From TrEMBL:
Protein name in UniProt: Apolipoprotein M
Keyword Glycoprotein: yes
Localization annotation: Secreted
Lineage top rank: taxon: Eukaryota
SUPFAM superfamilies xref list: Lipocalins (SSF50814)
Amino acid sequence: MALPAAVFLLALTSLSAASAPDCKDLVRPFIPDDPKLVFGKWVYVMGAGDPKPYHKALESLKSSWIDLSPTSDSQVVTLRWGDNCFDRCISGEANATVSGITTTFRKNLSDHKGHLLQTCSDCLLWTDAFRNGDTTGRYILQFTRTGKKDPKDVEIFRKQVGCLSFPENFHSYDGKTELCPDDKQSTE
Ligand SMILES: *[C@@H]1O[C@H](CO)[C@@H](O)[C@H](O)[C@H]1NC(C)=O
Ligand SMILES: *[C@@H]1O[C@H](CO)[C@@H](O)[C@H](O)[C@H]1NC(C)=O
């Protein structure tokens, strides 16, 4: 099968704090050797938004998961999510279209366009720009398989946030708020 994507890229080589990577390395889009490693369920652990109202909006995101699965079209990935937001669960599904390193999808009337960045192993780091009518903004979101995060990975994320000029007081999942139920568990 044609690899469904220089799509959602996952860092197979993890960035290490010891090597003190500079911004050029830290913000480089990542192409996965094996896109399969990107599929399945991911739990949101840290994020930042820009401009301020979008950064602030992440405060109301108490927990969040995403699920990525391939489709018969190598350019299309199914994105599902469950956001615990405004004290309720909001779930949804979108077809994400992959073209080169760029992936686009529509969520809650916003058109998102972004790519993955290098990150820790077993982590997924996504950044995008979105447009909703006249409104534009951007996000950076870090996910892990377990919803837990390693302190040294937090430090790398902090640097990446800084390199990309997102607000430095990024948000973190408290690790406690229950994830919204998934009525359609991934088979990945
Ligand atoms: C995704 O694409 C498939 C095939 O075109 C379509 O059947 C499905 O309704 C789409 N899903 C969403 C959420 O748009
Ligand atoms: C979806 O967008 C509407 C209008 O922009 C906004 O009021 C609402 O809070 C958004 N919902 C979520 C879950 O982000």
